[in-house]
Amino acid sequence: MKVHGAIPNRFRFAALAILGFAAVTARGADHAARIDGPLHTDGRAIRDRSGREVILAGVNSSGMEWGAGEPWTDGHCEGLRDDRHLGCYAVENAPGDEEWRQIDSSGFNSIRLPIAWANLEPEPPTLRGRAVEHHWNEDYLRALDGIVEACQRHHLAVILSMHQWAWSPALRPEGKNANLTGHGNGFPAWLYRKNTNQIEARREFFKNARMVLPGYSIQEALADAWTRVASRYRGRICVVGADLLNEPYLAMEGEPKADRIPLDDLFERLGQSVHRANSELLLIVQDDPPATPITRRPALPNLVYSIHLYPKKWDARAAAKLTASVARGAKWNAPLWVGEFDMIGGGNAQETEAMLKAFRENRVGWAYWAYSRASKPLRDGARLRTDRVQVLQQGF
Predict the structure, then answer these.
(1) pLDDT 10s digit of each residue in the chain, 396 long?
(2) What does each C-alpha distance from 102 to 33, 154, 156 come to in angstroms?
(3) Domains of the chain
(4) I want to staple 66 with a disulfide (CB 3.0 to 4.6 A). Which of 87, 255, 330, 367 is the partner?
């Protein structure tokens, strides 16, 4: 294959859809068509409830993936563990609408919203008799509600992404990213001691070799966290997808990858839990062959295959990765979605447009990293980088 270039009320949701979100408008060439959720897969296409094929063309909205349960308040993170700041989630996203209004008015139709198990469950589960009892962070969930409601008002579809970067706020980044920040994000801090080796932490998770409680594994615990989130947004038509685990890599960039640990069982466990809780979500999977591969098509409905694409330039090697991923999606009879990418070479408009042209001609959806709080953001402080927005509009 060649590459060419917290209110679960269904009646209220239906009313909101009639008033705004679900209204389908073609919009102009510089605006992606708005999405009429819920979505489902039909072979290699994603379709809305009227059967129209849709292409997700959006941005990542970073901030809610950082931290270990404490919100950003007045510019300080209160959470400490072993005298280390663990960061905090950016609750300032939730109350105001400017970010979501601007994303919509810039022409995007969706956001990928990174969330973190560390914030969902900052205290470990306990046993009550033989039953596992979770202690969910309702403040965090209400902050997510605020973002979802703002996206609904501004016609944006939401793909929830269970995020990790450097694995956990209890651990420091390793490899080439070691000096970027003092801690990672994603997996709960209570899982790990101060000097835990990050590769070993990843390995025990991918092998499901860690018991959180007697008879209750680490993968089961993450599946329950997904169940809590997916069920909360059941019937909320603007929440269209679950990106089951961000960058399921065995190691950070630049570190050795000695093992080969298939992700088949992991993604089927997570995806089936999400589907039971909310059957209308796209189930999005990503892998990192050869170290952490998916060796067969996951037995999941509404399956979407995802890659992240960060080439230094759009050349034959970068195009070949997209070619291989498009072919893999075709083999699985599943759509392809690029969950992260950024401006090539720090801001090369011509090469970035060439990559977007390849996405468009191959019916590949995408989400730029990131709208703000990133290395090449679309919004830098109060200033919208219209030059970057105009480049991305070439992908609509």
Answers:
(1) 445 443 333 323 333 343 345 445 567 678 999 999 999 999 999 999 999 999 999 999 999 999 999 887 666 666 666 656 677 887 554 446 888 999 999 999 999 999 999 999 999 999 999 899 999 999 999 999 999 999 999 999 999 999 999 999 999 888 777 777 888 999 999 999 877 888 999 999 999 999 999 999 999 999 999 999 999 999 999 999 999 999 999 987 667 777 899 999 999 999 999 999 999 999 999 999 999 999 999 999 999 999 999 999 999 999 999 999 999 999 999 999 999 999 998 889 999 999 999 999 999 999 999 998 888 999 988 899 999 999 999 999
(2) 16, 9, 11
(3) 10-395 (3.20.20.80)
(4) 87
Please enumerate in sequence order all residues whose Cβ is within 8 A of that of 243, keeping only pairs 6 or more positions apart, or say none.
112, 159, 160, 161, 162, 284, 286, 306, 339
Tell me the three state secondary structure of residue 283: strand
What's the count of helices (H) and strands (E) in the chain, helices before strands?
10, 18
Helix, strand, coil % over all residues of the chain, rounded to 5 = 35, 20, 50
Backbone angles phi, psi at 333, to 5 degrees: 55, 50
Q: What are residue 65's phi and psi, to 5 degrees?
A: -90, -15
Q: Taking Cα atoms as reference points, which of 322, 227, 317, 234 lies closest to residue 274?
A: 227
d(CA 274, CA 229): 9
Q: What are phi and psi of 294, to 5 degrees?
A: -100, 120
